Amino acid sequence: MKPRNKPDEEEAEFFHLPSRKNWSTRLIKFISALVVFMAGLVIGLSLSGRFNAQTEIFFPGTMYSVNCDKDFLGFKSFVTPQHLIHSMTDEELFWRASMAPKMEEYPFQRVPKVAFMFMTRGTLPFARLWDRFFKGHEGQYSVYLHTLPDYKLNVSTNSAFYGRQIPSEEVSWGSVTLVDAEKRLLANALLDFSNERFVLLSESCIPVYNFTTVYNYLIYSAHSFVESYDENSQEARGRYNRRMAPTIKLYHWRKGSQWFELNRELAVYIVADYQYYSIFRKYCKPSCYPDEHYIPTYLNMFHGSLNSNRTVTWVDWSRSGPHPATYGAPNITADFIRSIRNNGTSCTYNSKPTSVCFLFARKFAPNALGPLLALSSALMGF
Ligand SMILES: *[C@@H]1O[C@H](CO)[C@@H](O)[C@H](O)[C@H]1NC(C)=O
Ligand SMILES: *[C@@H]1O[C@H](CO)[C@@H](O)[C@H](O)[C@H]1NC(C)=O
Ligand SMILES: *[C@@H]1O[C@H](CO)[C@@H](O)[C@H](O)[C@H]1NC(C)=O
Ligand SMILES: *[C@@H]1O[C@H](CO)[C@@H](O)[C@H](O)[C@H]1NC(C)=O
Ligand SMILES: *[C@@H]1O[C@H](CO)[C@@H](O)[C@H](O)[C@H]1NC(C)=O
C-alpha cells in the first residue's frame, strides 16, 4: 500500500456529504445535545458557587458596567462626545479629529456651534463675565480649556466652564509647544461634529458684543479670521529661516496674531498637517515664534481665499515694547469699550464694509472684572 492512500481515504470520508434530510436531523440532535450540556454546565457552576466568575468569560463585565456609556458604539456619543477626558495621545487624537464626513447632509438636526477654546495657565478671571455672555444660548456653543496639566479649575456646576478641561500638556511661551496646545484644542473641539467655528482666546480676553452678534458674525462669515500679513521687518520677514526652503519660501512667509478664528474646514487642515508643522518645529526657534507664523503662513500657501487675513480680537500695540498694553480697573470706561466696538474705521465682512471689526478684546487685568460687570449689560447687552 502506498503511504498516500490512507489520507486520501480520510479526505473522501470527510467530504462525503449526507443527504439533506439526514444532515438536518443530525444537526438538531447535535444542538439538543449542546443545549443540555450547556444547561448542565451552568447549573453545575452555579451550585459550585463559581457562576459569577465564570460568566465573565461569556459576558465581559465591561459590556454591562453601569458606569460605561450604554451607547457604546452608538451614534449620539460619536457625533457629540459628552465627556472630554480621553487617553488618546496627540498623534492618535489628531488622526481621529482629521476625519471629515464625505456626505454633505447630516443624518441629525445639526445646529452649528461656535467652539470657544481658552488657552490658559489656570485661573479664568473673567469667567463670570463669559458666563453672562453665554447665558441662554446653550446648544449654540461649546467651551474647551487648555490649562497646566495638573490644574483643577474650581467653578460652580452651572458655569459654562464646568467640566470643560481637555487633557493638557506643559506649554512654554514662544515655543512650538504653544502650537501643539492650539492643535490639541482644535482636535478636541473637532470631535464634536456640530462645532463649526473655532475661536482661540486667552484668560485675559473679554467679549465686546453679545452672544447673538458674535454667533451670527462668525457662523455667516464666508471667511475665517486669521491675521496674516507680510512685512519687511525684523519681527516678520526677519524671522524666516532659509533652511525652510524649498518647501517654504520667503514669499510664502506671513506673520499674524496667535488669536485666530477658523471654520471647520480649515481647522481640519491644520490638525491634519504634519509636513509644514514639522518644518516650523525644526527651524522656527527663538527668536522666531511659531504661534505667530505657522498658521498665517500655512493658510497663505494653501487656503488664502478662505481667510479674511484680519483678526477679530482687539489688542493695543500702540505702546512700543514686547507686550501689548494691559487694561485694569481704572482704565475701564464706557467710552473705552465703545471705542473697541466701533473706533470709526471700517473693515470688510463678506466683501462689504462694516464698522463691526472686533468681537473680543485683550489684554485685561483681573481687577477689570468689577467695572466690566458693572457696564456690560447696559453697553454690551449681556
Ligand atoms: C472653590 O470655590 C468655592 C467658592 O468660591 C470655595 O468655597 C472652595 O473652597 C473652592 N475650593 C477649592 C478646592 O479651592
Ligand atoms: C487674504 O490673503 C490671501 C492671500 O494669502 C488672498 O488670496 C485673499 O484674497 C485675502 N483675503 C481677503 C478677504 O482679501
Ligand atoms: C490705565 O490707567 C492708569 C491710571 O490712570 C494709567 O496710568 C495707565 O496708563 C492706563 N493704562 C492704559 C493701558 O491706558
Ligand atoms: C481703530 O483700530 C484700528 C485697528 O486696531 C487702528 O489701526 C486704528 O488706528 C484705530 N482708529 C482709531 C481712530 O482709533
Ligand atoms: C445684541 O447686540 C445687538 C447689537 O450688536 C443688538 O441689536 C441686540 O439687541 C442685542 N441683543 C440683546 C439680547 O441685547
Number of strands: 9
Number of helices: 13
What is the strand content? 5-15%
Gross morphology: globular
- Terminal-residue CA separation: 98 Å
Ligands bound, unique: 2-acetamido-2-deoxy-beta-D-glucopyranose
Which SSEs are present, and which pair or pack?
Blueprint: H1 5-15, H2 20-47, H3 51-58, H4 76-79, H5 90-97, E1 113-119, H6 127-134, E2 141-146, H7 177-190, E3 195-202, E4 206-207, H8 211-219, E5 261-263, H9 264-272, H10 275-283, H11 294-302, E6 313-314, H12 334-341, E7 347-349, E8 352-354, E9 360-361, H13 369-380
Parallel strand pairs: 1-2, 1-3, 6-9
Antiparallel strand pairs: 3-5, 4-9, 7-8
Can you characterise this structure?
Pfam families: Branch (PF02485). InterPro entries: BC10-like, Glyco_trans_14. By secondary structure, the chain is α/β, with parallel strands linked by helices. It has a domain of 229 residues: Spore Coat Polysaccharide Biosynthesis Protein SpsA, Chain A (Alpha-Beta Complex), CATH 3.90.550. The chain has 13 helices and nine strands. The strands form three sheets. The protein has a four-stranded mixed sheet. A three-stranded mixed sheet has the order 4-9-6. Strand 7 and strand 8 form a beta hairpin. Helix 5 packs across helix 7. The termini are far apart. The N terminus is likely disordered. One 2-acetamido-2-deoxy-beta-D-glucopyranose binds next to loops.
Task: Please supply descriptive tags for the structure shown above.
382 residues; alpha/beta; Spore Coat Polysaccharide Biosynthesis Protein SpsA, Chain A; 3-stranded mixed β-sheet; 9 strands; globular; disordered N terminus; binds 2-acetamido-2-deoxy-beta-D-glucopyranose
